[in-house]
Amino acid sequence: MAERSKEDQARLALAKLQKADDAKKAMAEYEAHQAAVLERTEKLRAQRLAREAEQVRSGPAPAKKKKSAKSAKNQAGSLSDWLNDQRTSGRRS
Description:
Blueprint: H1 2-58, H2 69-76, H3 79-88
């Protein structure tokens, strides 16, 4: 019986060591991934800032015309048209 408990203790100690080793490996992978993400973020930020600086130097971009709310409403159709479409498509029964 004493041998059995010593074997169990040895197994538990080995499992504990393996978990600690796995945790170290996982943390190293996590830190490497985070470093890569940070590096990519900094690179993309530098590219964006360079692009924005170039746009400022080249002059302001032409302003886009905004669509009025009325024109968007007319293109979309009326509420009754939408409800009829919903009924005929089987969405409302």
